[in-house]
Amino acid sequence: MLAINGGMYSAAVYVLSTVTGYVLTSALLLKCPTLLHRKKKERFHSKHISHRGGAAENLENTMAAFKHAVALGTDMLELDCHLTKDEQIVVSHDPHLQRATGINAYISEMAYAELPPYLCKLPVTFQRECICEGGEDKRIPLLKDVFEAFPNTPVNIDIKVNDDTLIKKVSELVVKYDREHLTVWGNASNQIVRKCYKENPRIPVLFSFPRVLQLLGLFYTGLLPFVPLKEQFLEIPMPNIVNKLYDPKRITKSQRLIAWLADSLLMRKALFKHLTARGIQVYVWVLNDEEDFRRAFDLGATGVMTDFPTKLKDYLDQNGLSKLQ
Fold first, then answer.
1. pLDDT tens per residue, the chain (325 residues)?
2. What is the pTM (predicted TM-score) of this model?
3. Which of the 8 DSSP states describes residue 41?
């Protein structure tokens, strides 16, 4: 009996010491990840990111929007790409033209010369009851137009559809304009991100949605400090902004609970600090007021993506966060 009790005691001590060692090692590497991982080289640093060029100040994804954002000093342009029938890479968010142009057709069904202009007014997706009224520039631009106009500005490319030709042509264009060090690309789809990485591993990739879920699983189990990561950019929403985007009367209790839970899991200062220490930039989208700007940066986000580039610039200037300061 004594031998059995002694064996159980020894097993318990072994398990306890093993768990304690794991927890302590995980905590140490969470705070000091460079003890195990080489920090990724940071080719550019982006605090101010203009979503679709700044969709609340100019018509989204137009050259006018991009020029305005760059003139303000934005650190990065975020945009979306599709392929036309004649295999031209265009900058536009939706695969279908109805919302943005009023035409019932897909971009992939039309040649570039046939594409209609944007409507004069477009709703701003991430700002409740906000309509952006455009100026003279309503043309859907080519990606090469953006590269030629802003050769030194980092560009964040969302590959909107799972199309091998689109991925290949975007990569070729990035290489042609010598922008592998100024470009990040990807999508929420893990399949698209894998194809992007396979096509050109020299262009940094974003975490896909499944990979974000894996990242959270690793973080909350303490395994993250031990696992290598190929991605260089984490681009995530701030879930609680859903309460600002929709009429509060139409948001159910279950929807509020889901948003709160997602926000609690994603918006973690320790996670952001660990990733940035490994050279992985953290971008939070799409934030359009000072309260959310402040929260993101207080949590340790590298950058904020916004529809209001002027408002974000003013915030950075006033709080001593601008590059010049």
1. 545 565 666 767 667 777 888 899 999 999 999 999 999 999 999 999 999 999 999 999 999 999 999 999 999 999 999 999 999 999 999 999 999 999 999 999 999 999 999 999 999 999 999 999 988 899 999 999 999 999 999 999 999 999 999 999 999 999 999 999 999 999 999 999 999 999 999 999 999 999 999 999 999 999 999 999 999 999 999 999 998 898 888 889 899 999 999 999 999 999 999 999 999 999 999 999 999 999 999 999 999 999 999 999 999 999 999 864 4
2. 0.94
3. P
Among 283, 282, 304, 302, CA closest to 293: 304
Q: Length of the chain in residues, anyone?
A: 325
> CB–CB of 215/207 below 8 Å?
yes
d(CA 149, CA 5): 76
How many C-beta atoms lie closer than 10 Å to residue 247's C-beta? 8
